[in-house]
């Protein structure tokens, strides 16, 4: 069977995958897989911007401190320092590639936005569509690079590993479903970069695009890599509540510009929860909204910016203003109905400071990776920055170390075990819905022992059913994603059940206090090893 050989197999075309691809392209052949079209990624939908020290009124120390404060005692301080100090150089590289961030008309300084948890204005942005602008610039560069091949509609199924024991195991490449032809291809690479983004689709309500099914984390776990801190799932406080607009985010930058959270009766409740009110860290704002909705039996709360002039709103939030108008909401005149939704995974594939996972020849960056930066709660707009900084570091590692490695052993071709065509696709769609609902209802913003036990039972049963289905039938993208979604749900539940305290994004009614004496530590999962 034919084996597709490349030097660098990059799985994912968001900011992490593309920046890495651009940086290693001078070293060899780069193949970038994207399971949809190349632009479909969380990167494309990022609104608020990218945090980076860029003004004389700001300092590294201040950005570091804000990141540590949000992280609730679990950030790795040396990694945060590295992120913040290397950030401005990496952001300048994005600008040099052609990314246009908003500038003041007079003087030409960058306009800096503010979001929850930041003590000063430090967010570079392109209106309220920062991610789309970044992706436009890096994708154009990748498309014009002769060493980079972008393969759309290619969904990675599993990593291929050597037969070594877990400590010495090497990743040799990946099995990939080519949705254009329906065939499964075998890829072999000197180095595989996992940059598949987040896990939002594990939950019923999410700000994430459809591609965010946690594939990278699930594949890495199955291959034997260490996975860290999966209990820390960030819920964004303000997603639009509207039947025709699932997943539409209302940026935190709107609160940075003065928008106020109100109950339906008009009461501004955030001051009851934190002295920074609307600009408190995200976990606190999301929990406050959840609490208000539960106490008053409401399906949503209001985000109100109607006290600001219309021109101001249109200038700062053009995309959101236009989309809301399409839906019949004029936010210069009326409040916006909002609810929290799953937004960001602070855990992921354990990565060292060079972007290396615990398996040889497997690097990782972006939302798929856990670097130690975010701790128990990510500071707003630190995600794009983390992806940039660690994609660069992984590329440096590729140049200094990985390129000198001998060719990897040849992978075994894909074994087409399940050859039958399923006639019961409804089983997949039903289980998909059931798992996401279970996670939303039982493993959401507030957890408890009994909810987690019930969720574990449901997800374990779904895993057994889908395992059987997976081996019997020909793989489809829906089946691949469902298998991963269940795997990730299981990792989240097991990590959440293990942590017997409340900290940052993990809040459980049975252990409502933070317990530094026993739990100021990361949660590590690895296949066939006890959770530690
Ligand atoms: P992504 O950009 O999600 O890219 C993942 C890629 O992997 C995609 O190309 C996808 O097709 C591919 N992929 C996935 N699985 C497979 C597979 N099995 N096979 C092949 N390809 C696969 N962060 C900030 O810092 N600032 C913000 O303002 C901000 N706003 C946000 C707004 C929204 C609505 C959302 C959803 C997130 C926001 N975030 C923000 C978070 C941030 O956008 C993401 O964390 C970041 O873009 C992730 O980048 P990534 O490269 O890791 O993954
Ligand atoms: C937002 O614009 O509110 C999202 C910012 C982020 O997730 O960092």
Uncertain ranges:
none
Task: Label the structural class.
Answer: alpha/beta
**Helical stretch count?**
15
How would you name the CATH homologous superfamily of the domain at 237-340? Succinate dehydrogenase/fumarate reductase flavoprotein, catalytic domain
- Termini separation comes to 41 Å
Bound molecules: flavin-adenine dinucleotide, succinic acid
Structural account:
The mean pLDDT is 95. The protein has helices at residues 15-24, 42-45, 60-70, 77-96, 130-143, 215-223, 253-256, 282-296, 310-316, 318-326, 383-400, 425-442, 449-472, 477-498, 516-519, and strands at 3-11, 30-33, 50-51, 112-113, 123-124, 148-151, 154-161, 171-178, 183-194, 227-228, 233-240, 260-262, 301-304, 336-345, 348-350, 362-364, 369-370, 524-525. Strands 1, 2, 6, 7, 8, 9 and 16 form a 7-stranded mixed beta sheet that branches. It contains 15 helices and 18 strands. Helix 1 packs parallel to helix 5 (130-143) and helix 12 packs parallel to helix 14 (477-498). Among the domains are: 237-340, Succinate dehydrogenase/fumarate reductase flavoprotein, catalytic domain (Flavocytochrome C3, Chain A, domain 1, Alpha-Beta Complex); 425-525, Up-down Bundle (Methane Monooxygenase Hydroxylase, Chain G, domain 1). By secondary structure, it is an alpha/beta fold. Flavin-adenine dinucleotide (FAD) binds next to helix 1, helix 2, helix 5, strand 7 and helix 11.
